[in-house]
Every structure is written in structure tokens, then in C-alpha cells.
Amino acid sequence: MYCTRNITDSIVWVGGSDRRLALFENLFPIPRGVAYNAYLILDEKTCLMDTADASIRQQFIENVFAALNGRPLDYLVVNHMEPDHCANIEELALRFPQMKIVGNVKTLNFIQQFYQLDLTNRFLTVTEKDTLSLGKHTLHFVFAPMVHWPEVMMSYEETEKILFSADAFGSFGAHNGTLFDDEIELDGEWLADARRYYTNIVGKFGVQVQTALKKAAALDIRLIAPLHGNLWRSHIDFILEKYQLWSTYTPEKNGALILYGSMYGNTENAANVLAFKLADKGIRDIQLYDVSNTHVSQLIAESFRYSHIVLAAPTYNNEIYPAMYNYLHDLKALNLQKRTIAIMENGTWGPLSGKLMSEFLQNIKDMTILEPKITIRSALNDSSLDQLEAMAQSIAESITQR
């Protein structure tokens, strides 16, 4: 049975949710599932804004047919060619032989790579600022390359002032009957999922997101309709502010994020002692995570959130502890910058992890390494406890002076 919802009198949400999928992109845990949004505009011409993932194909097709109510589908606009949004292009092309596929040159190239069906003669190529009239509704095409694929574009509907924003402004999390930002609690689970989605999927492309934000600022937007997560109609300024922070790598929290790897509990003990010392010095925004037991996507999201990061890890095979190295690799790949980093190493006979972490961070833009660094020999003792006190003081002063 179809499951749709009108977002305006003439535009219908025809997407769906997947709560069975454990890993988004086979990488990121999604305990609350994920939503795939698609939208059907009903006018003199009918126009579908993107498709959905293959996992919800039956639901999606039923939704489209129910919303069309016997009418043909005239246009399919492809804002983004990633498979979780384009998986049903071929299905729709076969079911609606008169349907035109709307996209840019790169969109067509990707379609030809994904599908063996020749759709060239059914493709309508658009360029930046082209328009498509559907009757009362007119679409304007706003290119947003590398947010986060090179073919990405957004579509602005001028009559109802809706921005179909592709993956921008999206979030992890399935729909629970609610679609709009004013129907959910924005803080808590939603914000954490939105931050983790942005930082891990789009985080690398801050410059490109800034360009897209400037284009969006020139539009009179009453509703933002992304391809994942809730739609924005009452708190547009809220999500724009978050994107401004995230895309400029500006911390949300002036506090300390302590990330530790620990083989037998000694480095963990040092991390805990440091946290208590920071609290004694008046620092209230403190979070600790075990890099071995916390998914790296969560560590990345928290790193985007906090101004100061403590990295505490033992040496392993004369290298950085593997779970910590994995985190650092993602940190660099996702282009995080403008953070102050404190380093704590541990080693029984040859501590090297601190030196190696420092060298790694020197290759990441605009990272400040805070002194003093700490070396622990196996476990905390009076001498290393004094070093820990000095580190806590240095971090606290840096946070309060920021």
C-alpha cells in the first residue's frame, strides 16, 4: 500500500524509510535507520524530483503511481546520481516511455556508467540558471558541484519557493510519520545524526558548501526539501547556521574532547584523570571516547563540534595505536581544521605514538599542537601526574582565553 504525504497542495512526498539497513554506504552505523526523500510536482506537467534507493523500490513505485493517480510522468529531475537516489531511474524509464530525464552533462555521463539502457534521446540537458516550466510551477537549476559529488545540482521552485537541495541539509534517521522540522525535536538525537551525516559525508567539501550557501542566500526560500531527513520550513535559519559553522570548520563547543586508545586500561586511566583535572579548573564541556569502542564517524562528528581535542594513545608495533590511526586518517581526509590538539603517548619501552601523531597533524591545515606533550611509561606515576597537571592547566587556559 502506498504511503505518501502532501508537503503542499500540489507537491507530494513519495519517498520512504529503511530501518533494516545497519550501515549507510556500508560504513556508517544508522541505529535509527535512514529516510530517502523524493517529491512529485503535480501541475500541467508532472515532475518527479529524484528517485530512491533500491531497498525501498516497491514502496517508492507504489507511492509514485498513487500520487500520479493515472496521469503520466512527464519529467524526472535528477539532482544527484548517487545510487541511494538514482536506483530507480531505469525502472521509471521503462514504466513511463514518454518521461524526459532532466540533468546536467555530468548527470548524463553517470547515467551511462550506471545503466546499460540507452537513455540519451530522452535526456534534457540543463545548465546553471536554466528553467523548466511545468505550468504554474517553474524550476530553476542551481549547480552545487562537490556537495558532495561533481554532478550535484539543486532545483528551486519559484512559485512555492522550495529548494530541492539534494544531499545538502540532510540527516540520518528514518521518518516516524513526521516530515517537517517543526514536527520533531531538533536537539538531541536529530542534531547528533545531522552533524554525523554532514561531517562524514560532506565534511571534506567546506569550500564547495560555502559556495552553495551563497547561492542559496540569493533565493527567497520558504521550504528546503533534502533527499534525506526532515524538511525545513520553520527553522531554516537554524540549519543554515549549523552549515555555516560546519563548512567553515568553526567549533560549536568551546570545550575538551578527549579521545583515547587503551590496551590494558592505563592510558584510559590517564584520560580520566585529565578529565577530572579539567573539571576542577572550571571546564564544563568535556567528552571522553574510547577510540576502540566508538565508531569513527561519531569521533569525527564530535571533533567538528569541539574546539580542543586531546589524543591519548599507546605505541603499537612502533606505530600509532591502530584505532587512533584510523581516526586520524579520517580526520585528515575530511579536512577538519582550526583545532587545538593536546597529545599524550604511552609506551613501556619505546613510546613513539606522540611523535608520530604530531607529525601526522603537521600535514593537516591550521592545527595548533598544545604544549606540553605527555609521555607515560606504562602507567601514571608521580612524575607523569605532574605532567598531566601541566597539560590540564594548559588546556584550561587555552579554552578560557578563546
Which descriptors apply to this entry?
single chain; elongated; alpha/beta; seven-stranded mixed sheet; 402 residues; 12 helices
In short:
The protein is an alpha/beta fold and 402 residues long. It is built from 12 helices and 23 strands. The termini are far apart.
Protein described:
The structure is a single chain. With 402 residues, the chain is α/β, with parallel strands linked by helices. The longest helix has 20 residues. Helix 8 crosses helix 12. Strand 1 and strand 2 form a beta hairpin. The N and C termini lie far apart (56 Å). It has a 7-stranded mixed beta sheet. Helix content is 35%, strand content 23%. The protein is elongated, with a radius of gyration of 24 Å.
Uncertain stretches: none
Structural class: alpha/beta
| Strand line-up across the major sheet | 1-2-7-8-9-10-11
Number of strands: 23
Helix content: 25-40%
Question: Main sheet?
Answer: 7 strands, mixed
Shape: elongated
Strand content: 15-25%
Helix run count: 12
Overall residue-averaged pLDDT value: 96
Query: What is the rounded Rg?
Result: 24 Å
Set out the fold topology.
Blueprint: E1 5-6, E2 11-13, E3 16-18, E4 23-24, E5 28-29, E6 34-36, E7 39-42, E8 46-49, H1 57-68, E9 75-77, H2 83-86, H3 89-95, E10 100-103, H4 105-114, E11 123-125, E12 131-133, E13 138-143, E14 153-157, E15 162-164, H5 186-202, H6 206-217, E16 223-225, H7 236-247, E17 253-260, H8 266-280, E18 286-290, H9 296-305, E19 306-316, E20 319-320, H10 322-333, E21 339-346, H11 353-361, E22 367-369, E23 374-376, H12 382-401
Parallel strand pairs: 8-9, 9-10, 10-11, 15-16, 17-18, 17-19, 19-21, 21-22, 21-23
Antiparallel strand pairs: 1-2, 2-7, 3-6, 4-5, 7-8, 12-13, 13-14, 14-15, 19-20
